[in-house]
Design a protein that fits this description.
Length: 283
């Protein structure tokens, strides 16, 4: 399918009322400043579009990965600076919080691993469909890397699966397999890998029957309070985050992760592969 928009990080194809956003940052869709900015710009454009009512997010990279989460170089203090980190954090926070309350219908088609930043992005969507393959796992696994998941990331997971289960998943950095994820409500459906897009359009047929205005207002009533507080906290969180990332212990922990990745993975700038078939991410 010819894309209506082709960029460095995403391609966008508009099919009637649906925009298909294909994330294509090889090898594992690691999410740096420019990646988040591309997602935010696209979301803003699609919300202003005359005909678009829905978004489908997919991965176009060769590996079975939705996105491996934040580029660790954006979090490793010696490789960045406070001003870049602020811009990175605000782009990420604005995109996620706005996606969470967007008047558009959003579906995540998850093919393979979906840790950390990829996990929270999919949790901010209205519906999550996962490919029925062994590599399909989802979770906020930051604790394993020596960093804490951001406040509102924890809140979104808690609102989905409940306080007790979210606490256990978050504090043990658990990557949850597709069957458990379905049973606890982290995802909504498992389909054969070749049917991801077909399933997304089937679900959208139900959503698109709803009047746009009542859908948007109801979604805002359910999510707006959290989304608005999340975005408002961005500046403060960026400052607090930089202090934590500049901490010697955090620098040492993330430095060790970067070293491991450069040795064991062809993905030098991302959250990459720790063991064959197991993705480890950052934020």
């Amino acid at each position: 399918i010819m894309a209506d928009f082709q960029g460095k990080y995403i391609d966008v194809k508009i099919d009637g009322a649906v925009a298909i956003v294909n994330m294509k940052h090889e090898p594992v869709n690691s999410m740096g400043l420019e990646f988040w900015e591309a997602l935010l710009t696209n979301l803003t454009d699609m919300e202003r579009h005359k005909h678009v009512r829905a978004l489908i997010y997919m991965s176009g990279v060769r590996r079975h990965v939705f996105t491996a989460g934040n580029d660790i170089k954006e979090l490793y203090a010696p490789k960045t600076n406070q001003e870049r980190h602020r811009r990175f954090w605000l782009a990420q926070t604005r995109f996620l919080s706005r996606l969470y309350k967007s008047p558009l219908i959003s579906i995540a088609c998850i093919r393979g691993a979906c840790p950390a930043g990829g996990c929270i992005m999919s949790l901010c969507c209205d519906y999550r469909i996962m490919a029925d393959i062994y590599a399909s796992q989802i979770g906020l696994n930051e604790v394993a890397l020596g960093i804490a998941p951001p406040l509102f990331w924890c809140k979104v997971m808690e609102d989905l699966v409940g306080h007790g289960l979210a606490t256990r998943y978050l504090t043990t950095a658990k990557m949850i397999d597709r069957n458990e994820a379905l049973s606890v409500g982290l995802i909504d459906e498992i389909v054969p890998i070749e049917n991801l897009l077909i399933a997304a359009f089937r679900v959208l047929n139900i959503f698109l029957k709803m009047p746009a205005s009542s859908f948007a207002l109801t979604k805002y009533r359910m999510r707006g309070k959290v989304a608005d507080a999340w975005e408002a906290y961005g500046e403060e969180e960026a400052k607090e985050g930089w202090q934590l990332l500049s901490n010697k212990r955090t620098v040492k922990a993330l430095g060790a992760v970067l070293q491991r990745l450069s040795k064991k993975s062809s993905s030098k700038t991302s959250s990459g592969l720790r063991k064959k078939g197991t993705l480890r991410s950052s934020l």
